[in-house]
From TrEMBL:
It holds the Pfam family DPBB_1. Keywords: Signal. The keyword Zinc does not apply. CDD domains: DPBB_EG45-like (cd22269). It comes from Durio zibethinus (Durian). Residues 1-27 form the signal peptide. This is EG45-like domain containing protein isoform X2. InterPro entries: Expansin/allergen_DPBB_dom, RlpA-like_DPBB, RlpA-like_sf. The keyword Cytoplasm does not apply. Residues 41-141 form the Expansin-like EG45 domain.
Length: 141
């Protein structure tokens, strides 16, 4: 009895096994800046402070994630991946922030323009060791 070779089936099997060895990330990459008080009023909630998390881990959305205001209330996991100054990022530290404002209209100006997301002072300090204008981040909803 002769065994028939099925090269296509073998190839698909190898590809499936190989794909299981790699982890896929569904995160995006962008930039983050920080902003300072005053934080009110916001584009999302006006003067209503009750929408701010008690942890002070919140952010203003840049144009890239604003989505015509649909980002209000969304929560993002944010991690610093690099910066212009070595040693800026806190290794393996992630913060979860809630979007409460639109960065271009925020009450106080961000430390850098055109950031993907502008973090509160508390959130920015949670993932960085140094005050800098902006950092490169990985973020996911």
């Amino acid at each position: 009895m002769q065994i028939k070779k099925r090269p296509l089936l073998q190839l698909l099997s190898y590809l499936f096994i190989l794909s299981q060895l790699f982890l896929f990330s569904y995160a995006d990459v962008g930039t983050a800046a920080q902003y300072s008080p005053p934080y009110l009023p916001t584009a999302c909630y006006g003067d209503d402070q009750s929408h701010f998390p008690s942890s002070n881990l919140f952010a203003a959305a840049g144009d890239g994630i604003w989505d015509n205001g649909a980002s209000c209330g969304r929560q993002y996991l944010v991690r610093c991946i690099s910066a212009s100054q070595p040693g800026t990022c806190v290794t393996d530290q992630t913060v979860q922030v809630k979007i409460v404002d639109y960065a271009p209209t925020a009450q106080s100006p961000p430390s850098a323009q055109t950031a993907t997301i502008v973090l509160s002072e508390t959130a920015f300090a949670g993932i960085t060791n140094k005050p800098v204008g902006s950092i490169n981040i990985e973020f996911q909803q």
